[in-house]
Amino acid sequence: MDLKQKIIFITGGSHGIGRALAENLAREGARLILVARSEDRLKEFVTQYGKQHRYYVCDLSDYKQVSKLAESVQKEYGSLDILVNVAGIGIYKNLEETSLSDWQTSFATNVTTPFLLSQGILPLLQKTKDSFVLNIGSGAGNISMRGRSMYCATKFALRGWTLSLAEEFKEKFPRFFLITLGSTLTNFSGKSIEEKKKEMAVGRAYFPVEWVANKLVEIIKNDNRETETTLFPGDYGFGTWKKQ
Ligand SMILES: NC(=O)c1ccc[n+]([C@@H]2O[C@H](COP(=O)([O-])OP(=O)(O)OC[C@H]3O[C@@H](n4cnc5c(N)ncnc54)[C@H](OP(=O)(O)O)[C@@H]3O)[C@@H](O)[C@H]2O)c1
Questions:
Q1: Which GO terms describe its cellular component (predicted)?
Q2: Domain edges within the chain
Q3: CATH class for domain 7-236?
């Protein structure tokens, strides 16, 4: 797929993987719609990469804001090519420490928002041949981990939902795809990049964020992409990983 002039909606375009992906897609000539809470970061993106890109400030853990966002996009765009659900949060807590609010925020951001957005902008995606939804899952979506039960639960849910929709939409557009991604060097889950770099120095595997962004662009451009692509840093020579 040639990405020139393709309209690509990315959640979480302000930081980390979403930001690196947005920068790469902008260089490919795509027109981006970015969504996150950090308005300064989104504004700066448009200043740097041009006014063909748009952004919406939205708290993606808030159902009302997400539904409004989908309505606004429906009004402002005639069609869309690709939705990439990148935004996510990782609250790693033991059962005793997990609050209902942690649980609700985690599921809202990681599971319910991809559902609400996919459904909300479905009519725009249905107008475009070759359109698709790409969801960023995690190794925590098929490997259980102590101390991360709530995060695992959200990513198992996202994986089951995406793979089921891949079957439901097998013969029509948009298609649905999943990336099952291993640890990546961002500030995700409350541990800073500096702390993660210290872990890397003693062999712990992390993907560089630019590597992930490049790989995602390669997958997005590939018309024969797999329904689920699994990327673990240990498999690509970036160190070793041990199940918790
Ligand atoms: N890093 C990893 O090791 C890793 C591994 C596997 C999978 N993943 C997945 O990759 C995705 C991106 O993670 P990352 O590493 O890039 O994390 P990150 O650096 O923390 O970035 C998270 C992004 O999501 C946005 N976001 C989070 N909560 C939001 C909310 N309530 N409303 C709007 N936007 C929100 C953030 O934007 P604002 O803060 O500006 O709102 C930010 O742009 C997540 O789905 C994560 O589960 C990450």
A1: membrane
A2: 7-236
A3: alpha beta
